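Deviation from plan, reported transparently: adenine complex.
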Amino acid sequence: MRINIWTIFPEFFEATLATSILGRAAAEGLVEYRVVDLRGYTHDRHRTVDDEPYGGGAGMVMKPEPFFEARDDLGPEGPVALLTPRGALFDHATAVRYSLAPELTLLCGHYKGVDERVAQVVATEELSIGNYVLSGGEPAALVVIDAVVRLLPGALGNHESAATDSFYEDLLAPPVYTRPAEYRGLQVPEVLRSGDHARIAQWRREQSERVTRWRRPDLWRAYRAAEHEENE
Ligand code: ADE
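Because the crystal trials were delayed, the predicted structure below was used instead.
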């Protein structure tokens, strides 16, 4: 797949997209990242990308022209998501949907926001990664890219399988341990060392259900409702 990132800070992405799973996926040809500098679509000496808000108020607004011109020039296909705290909350289902698309374009906003006409015309959707305000869309874009790329077939090694992730089955993941079996008086649960795969699977499911129920009652309710439907 191809992932386009439109930003006024292209350097923000360099190290991260070359590192670990994101870097390996690109090296293996599973994904191509295209980082586009929006200042390349300005025409004045100062390469201006923002201006004062109509109606007054504090903060600057990102101008529509660079986004529209980038679209005219590059003609992105598939989802075009504007990262903004006003967007729909990004979740696992959205990551799966994006991972199935041949092309994904992420628009990074800044300052007080992006001219609304970009959201109306250039973007096909608006995304937020959580209920807090970042200083720009760039960190949010990296979060989305990471969640999407690790779902591409071949991006994870066997030992990194996505199938046991939290959210994969709508439950949080159970606790995990590695050697040593005892550390500073803290023991690894006996069941995990028993070699009894049926017992281990049952323990993991119980732990998943318990942690989900306590920590995320919203997910727990959804899980119980889905179970109920299945049994009808
Ligand atoms: N830009 C600023 N805050 C954001 C958030 N929470 N999610 C996505 N983009 C953002």
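The chain has two domains: 2-149, 164-231. We consider this an acceptable substitute for the interim report.
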